[in-house]
Amino acid sequence: QVQLAESGGGVVRPGRSLRLSCTASGFTFGDYGFHWVRQAPGQGLEWVAVIWYDGTNEYYADSVKGRFTISRDNSKSALYLQMNSLRAEDTAVYYCARLLVVGDWSWLDPWGQGTLVTVSS
Amino acid sequence: DIQMTQSPSSLSASVGDRVTITCRASQSIGTYLNWYQQKPGKAPKLLIHAASNLESGVPSRFSGSGGGTDFTLTISSLQPEDFATYYCQQSYSTLVTFGGGAKVEIK
């Protein structure tokens, strides 16, 4: 059964750091790229970052560029999101999602259950 | 960045109604458009990829159409389990973007 599970969320002060993890099971982790997507309370989905299957490329939303870093450890089937200089507006549920690619088309499936990050003093 | 605009942002409908949600891209994106369903407190679930391809296990009352800049998600006969928020997402650009969502509520 293909599954993703996020962890590492919590309450953190503004300006501090937090690292989220996403562990995968049920498929060959190293064959796929992954996204991080977040959702502020009561709001819509906001794309955060993506990393290629082999880690050679990573891209970020402007809102997190220079503060967040996406990475992966294929030996552990694990995806990470290092979040530095956190701001109140980073408060959200963070989801990891697998990137499926068929030809030129791609989509996100499945998604993890999400982990809540609250940035507050 | 490619902007995705959904309409309406919310709607009220009854069981058995036909529901249509529209998604418009700020530039032509071919058929690089996916639809997701999200229920309260749950993760999004993929419904349709590449504009019109229904995911395995998704009921056939869901359908997607469109191309270029204009896309539509249709639920032919709304069921109680369909009350949720629906998001479109473009995959034309590596920097993917989502629409603002369309919440389908019970009338």
Describe the protein.
The complex is a heterodimer of chains A (121) and B (107). With 121 residues, chain A is mostly beta strands. Helices cover 0% and strands 56% of the residues of chain A. In chain A, strands 2, 4, 5, 6, 9, 10 and 11 form a seven-stranded mixed sheet that branches. A four-stranded antiparallel sheet of chain A has the order 1-3-8-7, with no helix packed on it. In chain A, a hairpin with a 5-residue loop joins strand 4 and strand 5 (45-51). Chain A is globular. The relative contact order of chain A is 0.31. Chain B is 0% helix and 50% strand. With 107 residues, chain B is mainly β. Chain B contains no helices and eleven strands. In chain B, the strands form two sheets. In chain B, strands 2, 4, 5, 6, 9, 10 and 11 form a seven-stranded mixed sheet that branches. In chain B, strands 1-3-8-7 form a four-stranded antiparallel sheet, with no helix packed on it. The A-B interface holds A 35, 37, 44-47, 50, 59, 61-62, 95, 97, 100, 104-114 and B 1, 31-32, 34, 36, 38, 42-46, 49-50, 55, 87, 89, 91, 94-101.
